[in-house]
Amino acid sequence: MAACAAHAADPWADRVVSHASGAGAVPSYSDPLTALGMPERFTGEGVFPGAVTPFNPAWGGDELVSVGAGGHLIVAFDEPVVDDPANPYGLDLIVFGNAGFIDDFYPDGTVRPDGMLFGEGQLPLVEVSPDGVAWAPVTARIDALFPSLGYRDLTDPYSTSPGSVVSDFTKPVNPALNLAGMTFAQLVAAYDGSGGGTGIDLAGTGFWAISYVRFTNVSTSPAAFEVEALADVSAVPAPGTVGLLALVGVCASRRRREL
């Protein structure tokens, strides 16, 4: 494997600026550094290992940060995230949580139309900023649609082995998709190579580019949401780019665990 550059540019969040757990945060998800680097493709190592799929979301203590009522998380990108209308579906930023689909026909993997596993819906207030001073809210249903998918070649939604074809965590899912009732195979096809996540459009913020993202839990009850990672949306990659992004992401993930 190629060596990791010490300060290689990448599409993932790079720094934690501030974090407060808040009331009701999950104690095992207390490290904000887990929000840096690439989203996880394989979870539960050493306990209950499995590939990350929309039916088996990331759940390890070193993979998520929890934000309870009154809490917040602010992260920063070293490379600005640009508002680019040419991005797929006009989306510029992707946020990954630990939501998953309830399996209507376990273990076959069929999306239940009326519920999600660990989905927190509208709890967070999400804001973006170019400089960490001026902020603008964005519309985002964080920790919900679309659950993460680590590999494109899996046929088992509860696979205990990783796949061999990685998904693209910088490509958003078509936000118009209705996945209710889909089988796992249909869902993978509908993702069209994407690794999932919640897509955010920066249009309307007044900023041509942003470097900071702030999540605030405005709930009045001790309910929490989780953040796993953030990604800058890229244009449709040239052949071989997905593999390069995967390598860069592994390097970034390695760096965050060394901090």
Descriptive account of the structure:
The chain is mainly beta and 259 residues long. It has one domain. It contains 2 helices and 14 strands, in the order ββββββββββαββββα. The strands form 5 sheets. A 5-stranded antiparallel beta sheet has the order 1-5-12-9-10, with no helix packed on it.
In short:
Helix content is 10%, strand content 25%. The protein is mostly beta strands and 259 residues long. The chain has one domain.
| Strand count | 14
The radius of gyration is 17 Å
The low-pLDDT segments are: 1-8, 245-259
The total count of helices amounts to 2
> Widest sheet: strand order?
1-5-12-9-10
Q: How many structural domains? A: 1
Percent in helix = 10-25%
Order of helices and strands: EEEEEEEEEEHEEEEH
Helix-strand makeup class: mainly beta
Fold blueprint:
Blueprint: E1 15-20, E2 42-43, E3 50-51, E4 65-67, E5 72-82, E6 93-96, E7 100-103, E8 111-117, E9 124-129, E10 136-137, H1 184-191, E11 198-200, E12 209-217, E13 225-227, E14 229-232, H2 241-258
Antiparallel strand pairs: 1-5, 2-3, 4-13, 5-12, 6-11, 6-14, 7-8, 9-10, 9-12
What are its keywords?
single chain; mainly beta; 25% strand; globular
